């Protein structure tokens, strides 16, 4: 132990003496001089200078020569592991030869750190890599004969020591190393010439087939390479290391445990797990942390394994990427293949076990909490994790995303456990499927809230295990999407309480069911009749779904018209899944919808050289520093967080990313824009019409060349007047007719008439077209991707799609306002609105000359209308939970309506905007 010398001078001032004594006692922990030490891979003696570990050029020669404790790596020190460390076993050394007997630290400020991130001066980065496998160089390989007694491509060797029958490797000391696949027998290996890079092991013989040549010097075996032994050592951090095929071990009587506390793994890669888990943490191992690590290819990832009430406590498993757990068949023997498994945890008051911010995919089960008959499990927090691609058809796997389970008659306390703001995505690749999103069997109050569950067989399963009946399960603010069974519960309605409400379920289809364990199924109305989900809804949550297939966590962000916004119960949350602040009332699901900003073109109104302003919903708009030109048109491309601006023939086309303006083409003058994202994820671009003719696109590669229509050689250039993005095509209103574009080819729909207006009816997958009152086509039409059909003869003045009501709203002028559900029309009111819009869940109705008292803007929620202002509005745009309105000829300028408080916050700016759009940059 390093020490420091302190001299205390005598003083007649007692207070000063006391101060100095206290100072010395506090300084004792920190006055030791921390040192850096270095180790390089084993080599010939004298390769690394003095080989005393004091610097890189004088590094210790191999891990077995590191000095621990006095005169070596001690409390507060860092050992830099440089290069790849893998033991070359020239003769059998025994079970413990490669043990690394680590010395720990004394406190959080005097930890021992073992790091793989030393930056070698003037040399390429050389990460620290440590293998638990070893190179087989102590026996001779013998070539096997096939059934015809000819030499085969299989070679065998006898190994000393009982190895695990799982991991064997080829060329493990290279970046292109491979693990060998396991086959069922030596005969299979010998007689199957295609089974390259495979092995069969039956003690004591290992047989391999690689490229058919003698494998001497190329094969590595598990179990007897380097091992970190941590018996009764504390305060150790493994950082920035790649650790392959290794166990961390305590003493040999306790097996694969540590007898240690305060061990941390940070930013490490751990793979090819030995025995039961990559990190197997056991009784009495408290204050363990695994942070920002990658864990893969093992029976289990992180596993708190215990059968007692001394299970690990106060752990933190945060920000890890855990994947491919149990995906090899030999890893599926009597194991659940958990990403993270927890057995027990008797956390005391103000103590917690935290599992947060992890990404877990391709596993038998995601996060499993389990308690047996002799254990408690308390105050376990599972939050903000992504669990996807669960695989219940692995031999012993449950396929559960997050589960809280127990023995049949586990009597211990299971209180204070919370599961919230997790995203669980079932598997979409056959033959796997996510069996259950969240499973709950604890019989103490368990909180399940603000989770998003997608594409599982069962969204939420609340059911007993034996005689352990889940009582007082508290379920709030969850979104369950595309799960054939939304909620599954035990058949005994009076046997326990499900306090479930304020959730969103979707879709409302024939297989939309709530299920009881005895086989009965209920629809939503029947389910609610039992007192469940009184305020919950069946509604499309309207996720952004930028990938088009709900593959990524970001796909589950809310759009501005989601019914999840501000409709959840207050769960005392301050931030959402990604750390955004909760705005207004709680939203339902893992994400809180964030307040967008308003990009405003003030044009001639601006008295400064700048014409563009940004408004964040409070105070006055702020100038954006640019050239001061007045844009003629702009659009926001949400999926790229980019604005395209048309500065006319004088300046051309620019893009703006919230910080920088970029010239895209100085000779381009767009007349209209339309962002289009095709659901397959293969198309993400903006369609642009050039002034004077021509159809172009803008994507991540920039502005395209003109896209031409070649079916008619005499007509090769389009002159688009309007675009409408649909599901799998872009509709183009050309001056000569209607066309569609699929990202590659342009197709003609009709060439005789050009529609006046178009909208996309999302839920019915219909393009709706207004063909006006003259020409070969008149009135209202739909296009389903193949057929153009007339559905009405009147000429609409305006129409809009109302997402939360799944209706097309059509303004027929003096005929009044109508609604269309994809099949039938029905009157919605006799008034003639001047304009239509959407604000959250509501329809905006703008009236002029509808009597002085009723002029202005109204909001309609599908049942009743609310009059919010009598002034004539010119432009209205939703920003977050507020409505920004530019008023016409009222000298009111820009004003903001707060939909939550149902009041105007005042006139924020007296200028009248020429145009404005909502954007969601972070400024």
Describe the overall structure.
The protein has 923 residues and is mostly beta strands. The protein is built from five helices and 82 strands. The strands form 14 sheets. The chain has a 16-stranded mixed β-sheet that branches. It has a 14-stranded parallel β-sheet with strand order 2-1-3-6-17-20-23-26-30-34-37-40-43-46, with no helix packed on it. The chain has a ten-stranded mixed β-sheet with strand order 22-25-28-32-36-39-42-45-48-49. The protein is globular and about 95 Å long. The chain starts with 13 loop residues before the first helix and ends with a strand. The model is unreliable at 1-31 (pLDDT under 50).
Keyword list:
about 900 residues, mainly beta, 5 helices, about 5% helix, 14-stranded parallel beta sheet, 16-stranded mixed beta sheet, about 40% strand
The description of the largest β-sheet is: 16 strands, mixed
The percentage helix is under 10%
Radius of gyration: 34 Å
Q: What's the end-to-end separation, in Å?
A: 51 Å
Query: What percentage of the residues does DSSP assign to strands (E)?
Result: 35-45%
Q: Name the average pLDDT.
A: 86
Could you say which structural class the secondary elements and strand pairing correspond to? mainly beta
User: What is the total tally of β strands?
Assistant: 82
């Amino acid at each position: 132990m390093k020490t420091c010398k302190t001299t205390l001078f005598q003083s007649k001032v007692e207070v000063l003496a006391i101060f100095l004594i206290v100072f010395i006692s506090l300084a004792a922990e920190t006055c030791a001089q921390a040192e850096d030490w270095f180790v390089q891979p084993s080599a010939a003696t004298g390769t690394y200078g003095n080989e005393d570990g004091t610097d890189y050029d004088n590094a210790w020669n191999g891990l077995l020569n590191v000095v621990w404790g006095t005169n070596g790596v001690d409390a507060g020190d860092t050992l830099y592991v440089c290069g790849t460390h893998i033991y070359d076993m020239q003769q059998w050394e025994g079970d413990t030869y490669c043990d690394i007997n680590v010395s720990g630290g004394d406190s959080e400020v005097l930890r021992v750190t073992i790091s793989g991130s030393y930056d070698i001066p003037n040399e390429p980065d050389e990460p620290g890599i440590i293998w638990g496998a070893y190179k087989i160089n102590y026996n001779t390989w013998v070539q096997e004969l096939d059934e015809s007694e000819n030499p085969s491509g299989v070679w065998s060797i006898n190994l000393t020591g009982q190895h695990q029958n799982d991991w064997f490797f080829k060329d493990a000391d290279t970046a292109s190393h491979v693990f060998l696949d396991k086959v069922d027998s030596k005969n299979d290996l010998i007689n199957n010439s295609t089974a390259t890079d495979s092995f069969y092991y039956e003690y004591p013989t290992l047989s391999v087939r690689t490229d058919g040549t003698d494998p001497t010097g190329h094969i590595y075996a598990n179990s007897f390479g380097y091992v970190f032994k941590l018996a009764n050592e504390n305060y150790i951090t493994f950082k920035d290391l790649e650790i392959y095929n290794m166990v961390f071990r305590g003493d040999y009587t306790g097996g694969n445990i540590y007898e240690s506390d305060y061990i941390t793994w940070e930013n490490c890669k751990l793979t090819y797990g030995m025995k039961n888990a990559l990190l197997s943490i056991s009784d009495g191992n408290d204050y363990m942390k695994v942070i920002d690590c990658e864990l893969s290819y093992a029976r289990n990832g992180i596993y708190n394994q215990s059968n007692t009430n001394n299970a690990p406590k106060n752990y933190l498993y945060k920000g890890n990427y855990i994947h491919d757990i149990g995906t090899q068949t030999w890893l599926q023997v009597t194991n659940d293949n958990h990403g993270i498994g927890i057995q027990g945890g008797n956390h005391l008051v103000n103590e917690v076990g935290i599992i947060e911010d992890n990404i877990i995919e391709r596993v038998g089960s995601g996060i499993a909490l389990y308690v047996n008959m002799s254990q408690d499990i308390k105050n376990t927090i599972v939050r903000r994790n992504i669990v996807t691609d669960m695989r219940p058809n692995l031999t012993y796997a449950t396929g559960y995303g997050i589960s809280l389970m127990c023995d049949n008659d586990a009597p211990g306390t299971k209180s204070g456990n919370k599961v919230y703001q997790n995203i669980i995505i079932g598997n979409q690749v056959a033959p796997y499927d996510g069996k259950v999103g969240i499973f709950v069997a604890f019989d103490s109050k368990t909180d399940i809230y603000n989770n998003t569950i997608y594409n599982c067989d069962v969204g939420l399963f609340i059911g007993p295990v034996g005689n352990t009946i889940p009582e007082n399960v508290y379920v709030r603010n969850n979104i369950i999407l595309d799960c054939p069974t939304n909620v599954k519960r035990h058949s005994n309605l009076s046997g326990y309480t499900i306090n479930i409400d304020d959730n969103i379920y979707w879709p409302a289809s024939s297989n939309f069911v709530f299920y009881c364990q005895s086989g009965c199924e209920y629809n939503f109305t029947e389910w609610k009749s039992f007192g469940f989900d009184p305020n919950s809804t069946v509604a499309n949550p309207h996720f952004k779904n930028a990938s088009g297939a709900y593959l990524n966590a970001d796909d589950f962000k809310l759009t501005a018209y989601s019914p999840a916004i501000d409709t959840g119960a207050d769960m005392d949350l301050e931030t959402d899944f990604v750390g955004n602040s909760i705005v207004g009332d709680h939203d339902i699901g893992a994400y809180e919808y964030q307040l967008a900003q308003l990009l405003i073109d003030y044009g001639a109104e601006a008295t400064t050289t700048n014409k563009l302003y940004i408004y964040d919903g409070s105070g006055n708009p702020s100038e954006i520093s640019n050239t001061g030109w007045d844009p003629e048109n702009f659009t926001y491309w949400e999926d790229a967080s980019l604005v395209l601006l048309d500065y006319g023939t004088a300046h051309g086309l620019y893009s703006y990313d919230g910080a920088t303006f970029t010239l895209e083409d100085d000779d381009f003058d767009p007349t209209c824009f339309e962002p289009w994202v095709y659901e397959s994820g293969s198309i993400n671009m903006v369609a642009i019409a050039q002034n004077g003719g021509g159809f172009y696109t803008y994507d991540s590669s920039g502005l395209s060349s003109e896209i031409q229509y070649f079916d008619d050689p005499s007509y090769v250039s389009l002159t688009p007047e309007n675009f409408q993005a649909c599901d799998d095509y872009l509709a183009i209103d050309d001056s000569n007719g209607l066309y569609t574009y699929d990202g590659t080819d342009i197709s003609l729909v009709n060439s005789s008439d050009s529609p006046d207006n178009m909208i996309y009816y999302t839920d019915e997958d219909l393009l709706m077209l207004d063909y006006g009152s003259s020409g070969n086509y008149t009135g209202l039409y739909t296009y389903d991707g193949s057929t153009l059909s007339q559905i009405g003869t009147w000429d609409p003045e305006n129409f809009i799609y109302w997402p939360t009501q799944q209706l097309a709203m059509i303004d027929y002028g003096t005929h009044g306002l109508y609604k269309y559900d994809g099949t039938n029309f029905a009157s919605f009111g006799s008034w003639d609105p001047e304009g239509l819009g959407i604000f959250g869940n509501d329809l905006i109705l703008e009236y002029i000359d509808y009597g002085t008292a009723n002029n202005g803007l109204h909001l309609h929620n599908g049942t009743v209308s609310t009059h919010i202002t009598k002034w004539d509005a010119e432009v209205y745009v939703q920003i977050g939970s507020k409505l920004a309105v530019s008023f016409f000829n009222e000298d009111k300028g820009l004003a903001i309506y707060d939909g939550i408080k149902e009041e105007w916050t005042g006139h924020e700016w007296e200028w009248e905007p020429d145009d404005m759009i909502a954007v969601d940059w972070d400024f």
